[in-house]
Prior knowledge:
By secondary structure, the protein is α/β, with parallel strands linked by helices.
Amino acid sequence: MRTKITRLFDIQHPIIQGGMHHVGYAELAAAVSNAGGLGIITGLTQPSAADLANEIARCKDMTDKPFGVNLTFLPTVTTPDYPGYIQAIIDGGVKIVETAGNNPEPYLPALKDAGIKVIHKCTSIRHALKAQSIGCDAASVDGFECAGHPGEDDVPNFILLPRAADSLDIPFVASGGMADGRSLVAALALGADGINMGTRFLATQEAPVHQAVKEAIVNATELDTRLIMRPLRNTERVLTNPTVERILEKEKALGEKLRFEDIAPEVVGVYNTVMHEGQVDKGAWSCGMVAGLIDDIPTVASLINRIMKEAKEIIQRNVDLIS
Ligand SMILES: Cc1cc2nc3c(=O)[nH]c(=O)nc-3n(C[C@H](O)[C@H](O)[C@H](O)COP(=O)(O)O)c2cc1C
């Protein structure tokens, strides 16, 4: 399937694996790229720019296909060494960067001068238009369903994607709630040029996380995510567990008095415990409503092949309907 996104990134299938903290290591990114999609290493999961340089080198050992690096600009306890990470990306010869969170404008000149294509993840049309106006090459339009940070507008993809199609000139992918061939065809129908998936790729054989994380996703339904940090206007969609329910109770009890420090112990630094030790109830971790559509743990290649096969069958069936 050829779309503006496959042409822009020189990939076979219009399927991107979004950056995921403590998940987006070289193993997963390479598996996605080798299967014809676009794999993405999560920059800030690497403790330093030197570690990111090593991770990029490891990924290059595992694939000769294009892959990208995610740079997330969200409120953090200590500001990461963004210029150092960008230098590692440039020196590593990576040609695609997925930015997310705050406006990436301060960092765009360095990326563009190095010939890097930038896809910015946005949760609203105004942010997508801003990304377009500052020179981003593409957008990843993240609906309210998505894992992680859906923003504060709560617009689901059935509205957000056609609005993006009507508003943007740059190509964009549909992100949030994407799982299978039906998602891909629906995304194309709504005007997107491909899909970006997080939670679905987390439940694959190659995702380098504890088996308990993958099983938690398979066992979850579409009713099992919660929105935390809403009172701080830093909303995150996470899988529910007793820790998350405690956070929500605290948020309710403190109301407008809530400060980040009140919930920090259950939110900061928990990814290692969850993703690698498999203690899935020990903290809040991003997960999308799409968990309700996930009931297996396939290899990345079989997942991508299945999505493409199903998408083609759906398109063919609908062509047959009208002919
Ligand atoms: C465990 C996990 C961690 C994530 N970490 C990040 C991150 O560090 N930076 C980022 O831009 N997006 C992050 N995301 C969001 C994904 O890149 C993607 O936008 C999102 O998962 C799409 O929604 P979906 O899960 O419904 O496919 C994360 C998602 C998950 C599931």
